[in-house]
Amino acid sequence: MTSSPSAGLRERKKARTRAAIREHAMRLFDRQGFAATTIDQIAASAEVSQSTFFRYFPTKEDVVLSDDYDPLLIAAVRDQPPDVPPIEAIRRAMRAVFDQMSTEDWDREQDRQRMVFGVPELRARATQKYAELISMVAAVIAERAGRPAGDLRARVLAGAVLGAVLAVAPSGMTDRGDIARLDEALKLLQDGLPL
Length: 195
Hints:
Arc Repressor Mutant, subunit A; 2 domains; 10 helices; 75% helix; 0% strand
């Protein structure tokens, strides 16, 4: 089944609406503070209804915590040749995604990361997101290895990858140098973590 031009237009419109809501929300969070900003204010600023806001983000926290790059990274891991070992596939996927980020996109992502780690209620909810990310990474690792979903080895490897992220950038990926350091940390894992 091929998608119609109107389906593509709808998807682009949805993406623009989501981006506009996030952009207006981040501007308000920066100006007023996260806690002082209401969903009504965000919706009004983005010129959408409150129900439209909730179609895109279940909570105010999700505006900041939703990471648009996670699905891209997972897809990039999935696209690696099947003979590439799991950590190398993740390293290649990271380079593919992060190398294509514009300066503007990188600046937005840095702002998002700083907010996640700078606002206590967001930092607390980020822990839940880590568990979701481990499940996402474990699923693609298991899939690539021909193992069942929920495979313990895949989950442990995914946890080690996330541990490397947290070790390299405990306050979020806020500098392009963090990406190079993460690649180095993942190479250490790939090599058996020699000391």
